[in-house]
Amino acid sequence: MRSSNPVFSRRGFSRDNGMAGFNAQPQAGGAVGTNPYAQGTATGNPYATNPYAPTATPVDGGPQTRSGAMTIDDVVSRTAMTLGTVVVTAALAWTLLPVDENNLGKSYGIAIGAALVAFVLAMVQSFKAKPVPALILAYAAFEGVFLGVISNAVSTYISPGVVAQAVLGTMAVFAGVLVAYKMRWIRVNRRFYGFVIGAAIGFMLLMAVNLLVALIGGGDGLGLRSGGLGILFGVIGIILGACFLALDFKQVEDGITYGAPRREAWFAAFGLTMTLVWIYLEMLRVLSILQGDD
């Protein structure tokens, strides 16, 4: 199974065909069964030949992770570092790049430049076979600069409390999807994957058309990012972000189960950070529209 997240899609914790790992479950006693990732299979598991692949314990026959394999602690620590970098640079940008009338143009210019650099860094890392921590943290730093300026502008010109609400909303979405995933209320299978990918493609195409019309004709293009339609599409964006989280959780779970090397935790941190930034921006947009209409 491959996530819709471009980071996981490029170097995902999965088979090369992208979907074969959906219904595979480890078998008792380490038997291959239907699990294409079991240690010793000739094909399928990209980690089958690595020295960290899980082995069966003599006590219960369950998988035992060897030293050097990715763990949930690795994912949590790397994600904390990446998100922490975003938060710190966003706070610095908020403080050092004011959005008053005298500095608005300069601050916006720096924010747009930072966003472009972050995008390029994200694409470079996405197409690398191995994670580069310095590249990932640099992406997080430039993304933080962009978020800091945009958040400051929204807070200054729309509502002082909207940023805190967007952060809380993003945390709530993350916690809700995590609980739903752990309780198996969300079934990440072939149908779910196909639905999310199709919806994401359609959403991005609509946003691209809206931006193109806005650049050519001015205004808000097709009106998909303001007013009632803006709220509707913002909510759709948040829902898509929640679906991305579920796919990302599946990828992390598979990576831990099938013995991904520890370095792959940086890919998990990178992907989760990108998804959370997506959700935050959509949440900020919806709340700003709602409060701007008050």
**CA-atom Rg in angstroms:** 21 Å
Biggest sheet strand order reads 1-2
- DSSP helix fraction: 55-70%
Question: Quick one: overall form?
Answer: globular
Q: Name the poorly predicted regions.
A: 10-44, 49-65
Structural class: mainly alpha
Strand content: under 5%
Helix and strand pattern:
HEEHHHHHHH
| Beta-strand segment tally | 2
Number of distinct helices: 8
Arithmetic mean pLDDT: 79
Largest sheet: 2 strands, antiparallel
Sequence-ordered SSE layout with sheet pairings:
Blueprint: H1 6-11, E1 55-56, E2 63-64, H2 72-96, H3 104-126, H4 133-157, H5 162-182, H6 190-217, H7 227-257, H8 265-292
Antiparallel strand pairs: 1-2
Describe this protein with a few key phrases.
294 residues, mainly alpha, two-stranded antiparallel ribbon, 8 helices, 2 strands, 64% helix
Protein model, in words:
The protein is an all-alpha fold. It has 8 helices and 2 strands. It has helices at 6-11, 72-96, 104-126, 133-157, 162-182, 190-217, 227-257, 265-292, and strands at residues 55-56, 63-64. Strands 1-2 form a two-stranded antiparallel ribbon. A hairpin with a 6-residue loop joins strand 1 and strand 2 (63-64). The radius of gyration is 21 Å and the shape is globular. 41% of the residues are buried. Mean pLDDT is 79; it is low at 10-44 and 49-65.
Give a summary of the structure in a few sentences.
The chain has 294 residues and is mainly α. The protein has helices at 6-11, 72-96, 104-126, 133-157, 162-182, 190-217, 227-257, 265-292, and strands at 55-56, 63-64.
